[in-house]
Design brief:
The chain is α+β, with helices and mostly antiparallel strands. Helices cover 31% and strands 24% of the residues. The protein has one domain. α2 crosses α5 and α4 crosses α5.
């Protein structure tokens, strides 16, 4: 346990960012934002038709193997990644222990990240770091792709537990729980080979280190932390 007079020494910028994002509790703000946006921007058609997320997905995608992928992509882009693009800085303005901001692509277009792909760039006390965000609804793994550009090695992993069976409407709570980790993995940690009908790769968490919330069960499945709504 640290006191106000103690100084924490961080080995890397990523370690420093993980510590302060954890302490700021930004991921709980993100979860509430994603929940709020489910009927507004993530699944607005389901809300208009008064049907559940699962009903909407089955109406637009007939392949069972792709139905969870479809809803996860929307939760990822319209939910999580849009939060870090449009809302995170409003929350981080009130975090006083250090200065953290997320930067737009225009602000980092001249930065050298080794020609590697990323989703968000954080600036923390003047130092910039590019992060890849992975979102899943799987119970035990995250998905990648063998044909995607090579990505940075620093990740935010977010596993969401979503109520996909209740009709979507404004005012309901659909995001039930989450597991969040910030870890670094090289490209060869992802398992999978390209096939005729699939180029997916997968990654499983290897331990309970560097978790922000939630955890891992003994069998490696995600242990979700319940989202509390006031």
């Amino acid at each position: 346990m640290t006191t106000e007079t103690e100084t924490i020494l961080f080995t890397t910028v990523f370690d420093k960012l993980r510590y302060h994002l954890h302490k700021s509790k930004i991921f709980y703000d993100m979860a509430k934002s994603v929940n709020r946006e489910i009927p507004l921007t993530i699944f607005p058609r389901a809300a208009r038709e008064n049907i559940s997320i699962n009903e909407w997905v089955k109406n637009v995608e007939d392949a069972n193997s792709q139905q969870t992928v479809v809803s996860t992509v929307r939760l990822s882009y319209e939910g999580v990644k849009s939060y870090f693009t449009y809302e995170a800085n409003k929350f981080l303005e009130n975090y006083l222990e250090c200065k953290i901001t997320t930067l737009s692509y225009t602000e980092v277009k001249d930065c050298d990240f080794g020609n590697l792909a990323f989703d968000v760039v954080f600036e923390i006390d003047g130092e910039k770091i590019a992060i890849e965000i992975k979102v899943t609804q799987s119970k035990d793994q995250f998905m990648g792709s063998t044909h995607s550009p090579k990505k940075v090695d620093d990740y935010i992993f977010i596993a969401l537990k979503v109520d996909r069976d209740t009709p979507v409407e404004i005012g309901n709570n659909y995001l039930i729980g989450m597991m969040v980790a910030m870890k670094s993995f090289s490209a060869n940690a992802w398992k999978g080979e390209p096939k005729d009908n699939s180029s997916y790769t997968s990654l499983k968490m290897d331990n309970n280190q560097n978790l922000i919330c939630g955890g891992l069960n003994p069998d490696g499945s995600f242990k979700y932390e319940e989202i509390i709504y006031e």
